[in-house]
UniProtKB/TrEMBL annotation, chains A, B:
PANTHER family (alphabetical): KYNURENINASE
Assembly behavior: Homodimer.
Molecular functions per Gene Ontology: kynureninase activity
Protein name as catalogued: Kynureninase
Reaction(s) the record says it catalyses: 3-hydroxy-L-kynurenine + H2O = 3-hydroxyanthranilate + L-alanine + H(+); L-kynurenine + H2O = anthranilate + L-alanine + H(+)
Organism listed in the record: Sulfitobacter aestuarii
EC number: 3.7.1.3
Modification sites for N6-(pyridoxal phosphate)lysine: 205
Pfam families from the UniProt entry: KYNU_C
Length: 392, 392
């Protein structure tokens, strides 16, 4: 519990850290310092003097520790969608004789869209094949070049078994790419142990890096010097400041850098990541499960209108709990208007994230009390049109 | 002249705004407000309440005015390198029967690298063909799908004639892509008038958006609904919050959005762009040329060791002046150590940017006096090893 490290509005119960994490108090002062003392005073020399040039790797190492990856195997930059594209393109080059990207329909749509864009660009018979989450492991046939899955389903919180699916992928000769958007900072991840070739993720959810904070990419260290960067920008070049006319990929994970790094955004994220230095991910997971179990128990006892949409076994969930309710959109707006912040995913999912760094058991009980009031009195009937106009 | 709007270190003469613009005073307070009052207080609801979701288009319109593009034709995001890739991929789809990307060896290497990466991904006989800047217009043959050029050469400042080359490209049936990295905010650009299909650029140079500030992309409005986005991220989808499993491109320029927008970086940029509201680009250009002409005249009079590397005709230069000097790297470090900030580009280019918003005639004379001292006394001899270790 590190609630004192966050700036949370008085009276708000924030159960949406799975979408956008709240503001760590360290971010504002650090950003102000970077703006005034680094950009303002050092100007161009900040690239070296303030360590901006190494920041993508430095912050990458902070993320690496959270996801069980070794030092030097993660680099920051761009967005999660771009990192998906990078990883997919490199994965396909590793299996030139295969033509299938396999995913599931529980994946976050942007991952599927990026794959669709890549397939449309390549032509040559490439295909994005999508199965249901339950069937995807069995669908890893020997024509699959790369399996791309998000560990935690963004709607239900359902958890894929990274280890087991990666083994299946490898047994079929496929490359494995994991999207850790809802995993990094939510639960222990063992990238090194799972042996997947690629992983990607974002940092604005559980890692609290701020709206639109940079993405990350992991490449398994033994492959990092052979992964081909299709997005071959100058900062992935072996010697960017030689200004060669031809691209030579940099060493290891550095080649997954693309353009000039977003220093201001990375500085906010770096400050946010300081919080994680002494977080025990196993203890965080136990606390997260305790909060989720309490929430499910109290909602099922007090708010019978809602139907659990997440797996009942906590070992099969990430760090969120979702309930189905037909008028969920309007009900969620009424709940938000009363200071309990969750979110809604079409068609009928009310989604609640549990983040033990700043959410305690008492918050869960308070949230359920307000939810019960909203649901029992159908409080959204009065206001739904007003609210709908404001929040889409 | 808006020097009072910038936070510049006392005693520094900053002639490197062509690489990283200095800090506009408005940025720090605005960023602090966004962090505390928007992220901190609104959290997830900031996407709507604080207008984060529309920010890429809103800031895009601010950039559009600077580059002569109509409202709604520019969108912000990612980096310049990514925007180059997007534009090239869409351009190639517009000429499916052609296989050549034509550029010149005066282009910024990252543009060439991104093209190389795309060609390597596509295979199918695609080719990046590179000519010298003088010969590129004549090399636009009927097998060229897209001509990709940077208007202002990053080393010499040499200016391409956008209008004439675009006409040649169109006469040969090719698509035209301009990189405006060293043009936007440096000189008047008339994108609408030049009729090129695509343009891209960055915002951390003359537009002062901060280190690694987001890139931009322009698509000619009559083509914006048919350009195919290869980097088809969810925020380019027509209805991102429907979470469809299939990608349907958004309307117009919106489809060139990719992932979640970098709100913190865009907020810094938006504050920096306020400065441009009342800037007359023609007057800025006249002031820039006057500063450049003064610099060349005084350097050639007082510092005979240096040889002009930029075109002598100011109409053929952007907003920078470059000189050749064999020991230019070390000499530039000695100059920087004395508060005159320019930069160096291999093998022997000493580069100076002229930005009338915060550089005046007196600064130019003072810079030349210090340059004369450094060159006359070979001041870098004493210190070059020390400096080389610090600044690469």
């Amino acid at each position: 519990m590190r609630k004192d490290a966050f700036s949370l509005p008085e009276g708000m119960i924030y159960l949406d850290g799975n979408s956008l994490g709240p503001l760590p108090k360290a971010v504002g002062p650090r950003l102000q310092e970077m703006i005034a003392d680094e950009w303002g005073e050092m100007l161009i020399t900040g690239w070296n003097r303030a360590g901006w040039m190494e920041q993508p790797a430095r912050v990458g190492n902070m993320v690496a520790r959270i996801v069980g990856a070794p030092e030097g195997s993660v680099v920051m930059g761009d967005t999660l969608s771009i990192k998906v594209f990078q990883a997919l393109a490199a994965a396909l080059k590793m299996r030139p004789e295969r033509r299938v990207i396999l995913s599931d329909n529980g994946n976050f749509p942007s991952d599927l869209y990026m794959a669709e864009g890549l397939v449309g660009l390549l032509e040559q018979g490439y295909e994005l094949r999508t199965k249901s989450p339950e069937d995807v492991a069995e669908a890893i046939t020997e024509d699959v070049a790369v399996v791309m899955l998000t560990q935690v389903d963004y709607r239900s919180g359902r958890l894929h078994d990274m280890q087991a699916i990666t083994e299946k992928a490898h047994a079929a000769g496929a490359v494995m790419l994991w999207d850790l958007a809802h995993s990094a900072g939510a639960l222990p991840v063992d990238l090194a142990g799972c042996k997947c070739e690629f992983a990607v993720g974002c940092t604005y959810k559980y890692l609290n890096g701020g709206p639109g904070a940079p993405g990350f990419i992991y490449v398994r260290p033994d492959l990092a010097d052979e992964a081909e960067p299709a997005l071959s920008g100058w900062l992935g070049h072996r010697q960017p400041f030689e200004f060669d006319l031809n691209y030579t990929p940099g060493k290891g994970i550095e080649r997954m850098r693309v353009g000039t790094p977003p220093v201001i955004a990375l500085t906010a994220l770096e400050a946010a990541m300081e919080l994680w230095t002494d977080v025990d991910m196993q203890a965080l997971r136990r606390a997260s499960i305790a909060l989720q179990e309490q929430f499910i128990e109290e909602v099922e006892r007090d708010v019978p209108q809602l139907t659990l949409a997440s797996p009942r076994d906590p070992q099969e969930r990430g760090s969120q709990v979702s309930f189905r309710f037909e008028e969920g959109y309007a009900a969620m707006q009424a709940l938000i208007a009363r200071g309990v912040i969750g979110d809604f995913r079409a068609p009928d999912i009310m989604r609640f994230g549990f983040t033990p760094l700043y959410i305690a058991s008492a918050d869960v009980s308070a949230a359920v009390r307000i939810l019960r009031e909203v649901m029992g009195q159908r409080l959204w009937d009065d206001e739904k049109y007003r609210i709908r106009a404001r929040v889409t």
